[in-house]
Amino acid sequence: MDNNALNCGKPFKWLPAKLLLIMKLIIVLMTTFLIQASAVGYAQRVTLNETGASLGNIINKIRLQTGYDFVFNSKEVGNAKKVTVNLKNVQLEEALRVLFRNQDLTYSVKDKFIVIEAAKPSFMDNLRAVFVNIDVRGRIVDSVTGNPLPGATVSVKGRRQGVRTGTDGTFLLQNVEEDVTVVISYTGYTTKEVPAAKELGTIRMEVAIGNLEEVAVTVNTGYQRIKPEQSTGAVAQIGTKEYESRVSSNFLDGLVNRLPGLMINNSVQFTSTTPGVGETTRPLFNIRGISTMSANQSPLIVVDGYPTELTLDMIDPNEIKSVTILKDAASATVYGVRASNGVIIIERKQATPGAAQFNFRSTLGLTPEENYSRYRWDPEASGINASYTRERQALIVNPSSWNALFAPGPITGGNIGRSIPYYIQAQLVAGIITPAQAESSFAELANYDNLEDYSRLFQRTAVSQTNTLNISGGVPDALYYITANYTGNRNNAILNDNNRFQLTGRTTLKLAKRLSLELITEYQENRANSAPIPGAAEFAGYERYEDVNGNPAAIISKSYAPVYNNVLLSQGFLDQNYYSLIEANKVSNKTRTLNYKTIANFNYNIGKGFNLLFGGVYETSRTEFRHLAAQGSNEVNAMVNTYTVTPTTANPSLVFKRNLPDGDFLRQQNTSSTGYTARTQLNYNKRIGNHSLNGIAGAEMRRVLNKSNLASYFGYNDQSLLHQPVDYASIINGVTGVRGTLVTSNPLEALNTLFNQTYDDDRYVSAFSNIVYSFKDTYSLSGSIRIDQSNLFGSDPKYKYKPLWSLGAAWNIHKEDFMNDINWLHQLKLRAAYGFNGNVAKLSLPQVIAQAQNNTQNTPTLPSLVLFSNANTGLRWEQTENLNFGLDYDIFKNITGSLEYYTKKTTDVMGNSSIDPTLGASSALVNYATIRNNGLEFSLKTDWISTKNFNWNTGIVVAKNNSKVLDVYRTGRYDPQILDLLGYVSGYPVGAMFSYDTRGLNNEGHPIIYDQNGASYVVNTSTTGTPLVTAMSDKNSGLVQYSGTTIPTISGGLSNRVDVGDFYFFAMINYYGGFKVRVPRPTPAETRPLLGSNNFWRVAGDEAKTDIPNLTDLNSFAPGLAYRYNSNYVVSGDYMTLGDVTVSYRLNDVNFIKKAGFKNFEIKAQASNLYSVGFNRYNFSMATGSYAKSYLTPTYTLGLFTNF
């Protein structure tokens, strides 16, 4: 409280508060003494004649006439009603009575002081208010974007009663008279007045015209904020209400199909083979398609104004205020060589001035175990697999096969990994068991299925839990926002779980009149535990995890030959059978990750539209990975046995010796990533008449340093933390008498999996500028430019200083005079932009990249270098040329949206190309390939009904993207098996799929394929090595045919939210289309055969009822290709899912909730992944994760959301 005395109501704001208070007390005491000494000399009568005067002026005149001084709160007096009074020579008491008659203030006379205080309501006033007054609720949003306006002032007109809106734009104004007017004001927006009511619903605020400095812009590019009508780029945004309509434990979940052009799909995987990397499979996460082969395919993530190097789990979905995606050059070029994949701008919630506000959120999610009875597996899977294996082994087993299992040899020999049917067949042929015993054994295999035991032993209900506590508040010059979050996840697989703790603090301090500081600090700790849990279909259904006594049973197909294993045990070797239950409990992986982030921004207001930003971000991440295999596990036993010396025929004098000590095996890897960005930026934002200019210019430095260290220990004891020494040098050079090599066939490669160090240092220096000019808020032009330098680029001056730039234009057609008569059209804006942005691939460097290792081809081994990449002085960033046209609309004040058309052509894509062989290789990674993307995007948001107690909102998002690889170097086989893994084939879309035109079988059970001219060919085992097999891998043979792309070209989302009073209902439907999927073909050779797998060709005539080849062809190369890559089983991949259904109810009006002091008390229930339908003859939806699974596994979530 600012109590003022003897100052006519004008506070000495330049003095510290405590000093001012002491001065006031001293003056009061001195004045009191003087007044008492000379009271007789002061006049006691008052003469006033004022009209509409402020109470402060009246008080000053009374003080001068009477000598009385006043003690009061300057804010309370300043808010008092205007005074009209005509008094002539009246007593002071009469003057005071008239003066305060209609004021919400009281006065008291104490000696020569008049103390003014706020009037306190009487008991009857309070009692009357309980029955007459109401609580007013509502939500304040921007009229164009629908985003909430936190910190807006909501007050009663003519009263001092008021509140500010929360981060979601909602407010609660309590104990308000029913006949008053509510005033809503927000900086940069036109003030609104509405009659008071219990539910005011959603109040849309319109941007005020004419004061650019005060306009709260809504388009955030990370570097600057731009008025929506001035933006020329392709931008899409989601606000707090839309984002929080569903309960999200993962940041990306709340964005799926909510923003046009943003593809997030974890069910559809894109597989590609990149030179220098190999085969990789990634979920789809991109903006406007895939435009690179070896560089990062994901969008750039910007949090609180700076790109982040940390993982997405660092982003707490409970803190999201808005998410904006930048899709074209006009909006994203300012980010330079990191913006080719688009940019996602994340703006988090901030504090508003006022008392401390507490926000607590808690959610609990349950995901049930898998129901394997609903899978498309054949119910006779065990019998089918056993029967097939029996028939297959009958072709190769001979009387000596059983004895061969006992023959000593290398671990990689024929006595490892045999199936149970093989052992039965081998014993039968060797005469060890009778045919009746063999039949009984096979029947026992067919009558057992391990799925029930698998679920009991390895599966459970998954549980996820989140708790978030937030406290925020402060005064305008010092705001704080602190959040603590805990997330715990227990996975469906036993012994697999993870948890996360995160603490975030954000504060804004006004250090001086023109200088402010924004400081953000984050700490996060992640812990994850995992164990080697087998997959449900990893082993044949007849394999047992437990014996009849409940003890762990050996998985025969993954074990050393059981009978020979007993011989090894008798010789002193360790048990090398594989027990899934033992391995799950003796082998563990523990990961601990610590993330830390600090952002500091100093903002100096120079004046006249200029302000200077100097700041930066520092991020560090440290991960500790710990793999521990306990003594007795198959992993440890296999390594010890591998390096155990035994007498051999060639060296019978050798003595049994273990070269690896007893104990556990520990592998530890520590990785760290440290990155910083330092930025200096000058901003200019000014409006002069009809001209507006919003520009930035700046420079930044960025460095990212990654390091890792891998070390391994044998003979480790987890209690004492000690380990035993190992003679690695002897192992590398070869140990006579050992039964194999350590883990791999190359000892040095194995050593690299035990000990390794990496170091990666990337540095960038950049300069950038972006300018937006607007005339009459009707016509806008924008331009941006950025130059990036990095140690990753070559020294060729042709590319070194090549800038990335963009130009854009916008026309607000609805502001033209000829549009004035169209009342239903509130916005119509046409946009166009052209420019370039880039991407960085790190598989090649300006220098030679080589790895030091020993040449194991020589004895003894010699030091050598493995060449990874030649020096490339012309190395440069991948460049994307963007052209975008957009149309934004707002009709009938309740329907808004946009329509976009774009083309993207990425050149200089890093890929393989032929080079001069004298350089040491026939091909190298160079800037060679070209990829083109183009498409359409449409979005619509509508408020069908918007009243105080009922609202219905719909959101529609549709995006179509077509891609084509225009130029890429390719040699080698050209068959569907290779091409499907390649991902990039010249002349076809990214993710192209290829097949054979296979049309059934001949009368011998061999597949028949056709070329593009209709000629037929029979494919069988005898064709191996023939011209036909060569033709099956030849690009020009006409046998390999294009079947479509594996990446959805169309994505769409339909969201609906219905609010009825304190209740709301939200549902989300997702659609993906325009792509193909290959349905797996049934085969009895699978460990878990699909339905129909037993219907393979056996005798002539079967070709009329099956297309599954004969027993031999199923496992032969060429016939197997013709069957598995049959174009008849490439079907539409289009599918639709009912992604989320959320219901919420606010209990704010419940008495005990009010008495407990809660401003908001909301309960939400959500069901996710409820249903999916595939638009093909199999009803196969990729959302299920695999063809075998015919349903979605739902997740049920219950949440509590409170404010107090």
TrEMBL record:
Q: Could you name the Gene Ontology cellular component terms for this entry?
A: cell outer membrane
One of its GO biological process terms is:
iron ion transport
Q: State the SMART domains in the record.
A: STN (SM00965)
Taxonomy, superkingdom: Bacteria
Q: What's the protein's topology in the membrane?
A: Multi-pass membrane protein
- Asked if Membrane is a keyword of the record, the answer is yes
As for subcellular location, the record says: Cell outer membrane
Q: Where is the signal peptide?
A: none
Determine if Cytoplasm is one of this entry's keywords: no
Q: Which UniProt keywords apply?
A: Cell outer membrane, Ion transport, Iron, Iron transport, Membrane, TonB box, Transmembrane, Transmembrane beta strand, Transport
Q: Which InterPro entries has this protein been placed in?
A: Beta-barrel_TonB, Beta-barrel_TonB_sf, CarboxyPept-like_regulatory, Plug_dom, Plug_dom_sf, Secretin/TonB_short_N, TonB-dep_OMP_SusC/RagA, TonB-dep_rcpt-like
Q: Where is the Secretin/TonB short N-terminal domain?
A: 68-119
Could you tell me which Pfam families the record lists for this protein? Answer: CarbopepD_reg_2 (PF13715), Plug (PF07715), STN (PF07660), TonB_dep_Rec_b-barrel (PF00593)
Spell out the SUPFAM superfamilies in the cross-references: Carboxypeptidase regulatory domain-like, Porins
User: What family does this chain come from, according to its entry?
Assistant: Belongs to the TonB-dependent receptor family.
Give the matching NCBIfam families.
OMP_RagA_SusC (TIGR04056)
Q: What is this protein called?
A: SusC/RagA family TonB-linked outer membrane protein
